[in-house]
Design brief:
heterodimer, A: 723 residues, alpha/beta, globular, B: 272 residues, mainly alpha, two-stranded antiparallel sheet, 12 helices
């Protein structure tokens, strides 16, 4: 090694990806080999879950940084390109370069290339367990017949132990292949939703029939459930994508693959979406040196060598056309069948509008599955919803008269602040030398911390709430006025969400406080080993919230969750569809949050109880007061001063508790009917790119809470004064 | 007698309610990956295995994440306790301009939906070049825990009789010396609560960590655990095993300080 390279700092390239576990290992291996050959470049790969990859990349790109390379499914290039946060590759690579790839791996967005895929596929197919059936069904009729034969209660306990077919059918992606098979695509003209069709209606009916009439799919089935059932041999057939093969090979399932059976009624094949997951280049790369290194890595990752490595190890179909004749591809039976399946596929749309189509489809579809709308209404409603969402997402609000006023107010505010602080800053600095310098030094760290972390971001959000910051104005938003506030306040949805949030808060805090007091009183008066019980009841508080939420989600599973199993076994009740009905799903969120919150109130109540003088109870005994009277006239009034501030804080926390609702209901499922205000805000901002609107609603939430808490503080103060 | 039975009955019921979810996680962590779905309520079955726990320590970076998390949590706790104890003392004992304003704005900070602060956080941190640095996390975590901690500490200081310091000040102690020699030692219950809160904020926080930390070498436990949860292939067994282990340090912490918990959380409001 010569001196020059030994001392030169290697160029650091970051790559964010969302590859599943098996693929990650291959990627790491390929990159380490690259680094060995190119000691001047270091590549650091970071795994992010798909949704999160999207939102953190957006945040990073907005801050003017982010990874040089981002790897993800092709449908993310639409929004990224619309936001101008990825570079068109036409500018960087010679024209012929793209010709060597399968067109599916180099999707075009507005006539430009934004991504190169290392493989193609990502499409759905029918997987079947060869131990259970030798031939896959060819038509939907056969599917139903075989499915019914395979669906069985094997041990005679009245529960189905094996299903004919399982798949993540509540998710639109898994259900989309059927729509064109019933006669019409779900999007037309590239960006227009086409959901209000008889085809969609028939597709809805088809799935409902599979579930309710022929009973060959489970009542509730998410990806994990489907996956686990198939691995355990408890499902004969499964609809899943090519990414899942490795998983089943590892679990030693002897499986075959086939097209999703043809729909007998229309004689058409279901058409899975075919796409790619590929590499895009950050628009923010400044130095030519970095850009050159980035392209080098990009070319390497899509080179023959790396593609073959992925094919060999995890069975990815290469995107380089030159590799299709390679024995590794040609002689691989799975890949051969898989590429035949792709022939009936539809290229994955990449425009940002797809997101709105998926979202409206998901919402209406879940309402349908819960039985609250008819197939026809669901299809119509999905169409108008998708249109409305696309409109909101693409809207670039123009400044109106209120923009002037807002800008004027902001300017006036800044001037006023400067005017007021002209002395204050001096005072503030002098304060560190003056008689109160002790106070100043004591306050300084907290002041700086809170200013940087809370006050500044808060004002930043206020500015956004008056702006048109959204998908189309990601890089250059401007203050446009109060439109978002007007939108929110004139939308009936805002008030129904507010009502629901209030119910959520009141019910939760009510249970937190009453359970807390109840347990505290019992522990304090009746129980031996108080310390033991106290500790036992602290457990829910000690468990991190995200773990709590996911655990309870598992416990509420209709088929395999312990709650339903308990209800059936010991109380002989029929299973409750906890997570697929809006009311029960919301109840499930409340139960989870009650579990989470009662320990805090219990501890506060215990403290309060200990401070009540014993002599009061002795006096009550002499007066022959019974237990209830003692509680009502001594314990409760004396606990109140302790409980009220705690309950107040509890209300604020509960009102803004995003985690539980978001994670337990899986982002508002079913059909967006379990949202409270904060989760609605989160969705608007991070899933639908409506940052300005989301900021405005957050400011409204803030104002509501400030108003309410000031009100109750004043009431409390007046009451105390009267007493 | 009936009353006693009822009391026992209800407390046992609640005991089940409060510990069952953790037992459920334990049960999942002991099952093989393929037996994730089960119709049985048993915690231990014939197929129970500790394989997931072994895998967690041997085949993943769990120990690294644990070390990072401990570092972040410890540092956050130290900073949080230092900031909260000093500023709360100033708020409790001294009248100065902006005092009431400060107290209310501390409370008001809790009223803004926290998720909306992520974007500005990211911008500040990248301007300060604190992305991929634990310092970014230290600052954010200790500051976000501050509002509750300051209120908590202030409420506690308010209950300490002023005479205690007045004597010391008369004896010629400086305010600072009075603070840390006289006041801090008698405030231990409140300090413990503050420490616990700061610790918990950072120990289980996920969203901000995901934005700030991009280098897998710096991952904290929640980030690490999340990586078992790939969108289409979750390793439930590993996740459950990890979840259980993540909860244990907090639990131990809670148990060892539960004595202080009761007095620390309520003292202020009772007397103040």
């Amino acid at each position: 090694m010569n001196i020059a390279t030994a001392h030169a700092e290697p160029v650091r390239i970051q790559l964010w990806h969302q590859m599943i576990y098996g693929h990650r290992q291959v990627l790491a291996e390929a990159l380490r080999a690259f680094e060995k050959e190119n000691p001047d470049i270091v590549v650091q790969e970071t795994y992010r879950e798909t949704e999160e990859l999207r939102s953190s990349y957006q945040a990073a790109a907005m801050g003017g940084s982010g990874p040089e390379l981002v790897y993800g499914p092709s449908d993310q290039i639409g929004p990224f390109a619309a936001m101008n946060i990825i570079r068109p590759l036409n500018e960087l690579l010679e024209k012929d370069y793209f010709k060597q790839f399968d067109p599916l791996a180099t999707p075009l967005y507005q006539e430009k290339y934004y991504m190169i895929g290392g493989g193609v596929g990502n499409h759905l197919m029918l997987l079947y367990n060869k131990k259970l059936l030798s031939q896959p069904p060819q038509t939907s009729q056969e599917l139903i017949e075989i499915g019914q034969k395979m669906t069985a209660d094997l041990d005679g306990d009245g529960k189905i132990d094996r299903f004919g077919l399982v798949f993540n059918y509540t998710e639109p992606f898994f259900f989309a292949p059927f729509i064109p098979a019933f006669g019409a695509p779900f999007m037309t003209g590239n960006t227009e939703p086409n959901l209000g069709t008889p085809a969609l209606q028939k597709t809805f009916e088809f799935i409902l029939d599979l579930r309710d009439k022929y009973k060959i799919i489970p009542k509730e089935c998410d990806y994990e459930t489907a996956n686990a059932l198939f691995k355990q041999g408890k499902a004969a057939m499964l609809i899943n994508g090519d990414w899942s093969w490795g998983d089943y090979k590892e679990a030693r399932v002897d499986f075959g693959i086939a097209r999703i059976p043809m729909i007998s009624e229309t004689q058409r094949w279901p058409s899975p979406l075919v796409g790619t997951a590929g590499y895009s280049v950050n628009a923010n790369i400044r130095s030519p040196e970095h850009l050159a290194a980035t392209l080098k890595v990009l070319k390497y990752l899509t080179s023959e060598k790396v593609q073959l490595l992925f094919t060999e190890r995890v069975g990815v179909l290469p995107s380089l056309l030159s590799l299709r004749a390679n024995p590794l591809v040609k002689d691989n039976p799975l890949l051969q069948v898989s590429s035949q399946i792709m022939e009936v596929g539809t290229p994955m749309p990449v425009v940002p509008e797809v997101r709105a189509v998926w979202d409206s489809l998901r919402i209406q579809y879940q309402k349908l599955l819960a039985g609250s709308v008819t197939p026809q209404a669901a299809a119509q409603e999905a169409q108008s919803m998708a249109k409305a969402q696309i409109h909101d997402m693409n809207e670039v609000i123009q400044p109106d008269a209120s923009a002037f006023i807002i800008k004027g107010l902001i300017l006036a505010g800044i001037l006023a602040l400067l005017w007021m602080s002209r002395n204050s800053v001096g005072h503030f600095i002098q304060g560190f030398r003056g008689p109160q310098k002790f106070v100043y030094y004591m306050m300084l760290p907290a002041f700086v911390g809170i200013f940087a972390v809370i006050i500044y971001p808060f004002f930043y959000n206020i500015a956004i709430s008056f702006s048109n910051f959204s998908l189309r104005t990601f890089q250059d938003w401007s203050i446009v006025g109060v439109q978002h506030y007007v939108d929110a306040l004139t939308d009936p949805k805002f008030y129904s969400l507010l009502l629901k949030t209030v119910i959520w808060t009141v019910v939760n805090v009510f249970f937190h406080v009453t359970l807390g007091i109840f347990l505290a009183v019992i522990i304090n008066q009746v129980m031996p080993a108080k310390g033991f019980w106290r500790t036992l009841f602290i457990i829910p508080w000690a468990v991190p919230q995200y773990i709590t939420a996911l655990t309870w989600r598992g416990m509420f599973n209709q088929e395999y969750g312990p709650i339903n199993i308990f209800l059936q076994k010991f109380l002989h009740l029929s299973p409750v569809q906890w997570l697929s009905q809006p009311f029960t799903a919301f109840t499930a969120c409340i139960i989870t949050n009650v579990w989470l919150g009662f320990p805090f109130m219990m501890i506060v109540a215990l403290g309060g109880l200990q401070s009540i003088p014993h002599s009061l109870y002795e006096a009550a005994y002499l007066d022959k007061a019974n237990a209830w009277q003692r509680f009502r006239h001594i314990t409760l009034p004396l606990l109140m001063p302790v409980m009220i501030p705690a309950a107040l804080l509890g209300c604020i926390w509960t009102f803004n508790n995003l985690n539980i609702v978001w994670l337990v209901s899986n982002a508002g499922e079913p059909g967006d009917q379990t949202h409270i205000l904060v989760s609605y805000v989160y969705k608007a901002a991070f899933n639908l790119y409506r940052y300005g609107y989301a900021a405005a609603v957050s400011v409204l939430i803030f104002l509501i809470l400030v108003g309410w808490s000031l009100g109750s503080l004043v009431r409390q103060y007046n009451k105390e004064k009267k007493v | 007698m009936i009353k006693k039975t009822l009391a026992w009955l209800s407390i046992l019921l609640f005991a089940v309610f409060s510990i069952y979810p953790m037992l459920y996680v334990l049960s999942v962590s002991l099952r093989g990956d393929n037996a994730f779905q089960s119709h049985s309520l048993e915690i231990f079955t014939s197929t129970s295995t500790v394989k997931n726990f072994i895998d967690l320590f041997v085949n993943t970076d769990f120990i690294l994440w644990m070390r990072n998390s401990l570092l972040v949590a410890t540092m956050t706790t130290l900073l949080g306790v230092a900031f909260a104890s000093t500023s709360a003392y100033a708020l409790s004992r001294y009248q100065f301009r902006g005092r009431n304003m400060m107290l209310f704005s501390l409370l008001a900070t809790q009223m803004f939906p926290a998720t909306m602060l992520i974007l500005p956080f990211y911008i500040i941190l990248s301007k300060l070049r604190l992305i991929d640095s634990f310092w970014g996390l230290f600052i954010i975590y200790s500051s976000t825990a501050l509002p509750f901690c300051v209120w908590q500490m202030k409420a506690y200081y308010d209950t300490i009789p002023k005479e205690l310091e007045e004597a010391a000040l008369l004896d010629g102690c400086s305010p600072w010396k009075t603070f840390y020699k006289i006041i801090l030692p008698v405030s231990s219950p409140a300090l413990v609560i503050t420490a616990l809160f700061s610790f918990m904020t950072s120990w289980s926080e996920y969203v901000i960590a995901a934005v700030v930390l991009q280098d897998p070498q710096l991952y904290t436990l929640p980030l690490g655990l999340r990586s078992f949860q790939a969108s289409l292939a979750t390793q439930w067994g590993l996740y459950a095993a990890g979840a259980l282990i993540v909860s244990i340090p907090v639990l131990i912490l809670f148990i060892s300080i539960s004595r202080y918990l009761v007095s620390g959380l309520t003292m202020g409001s009772v007397k103040g």
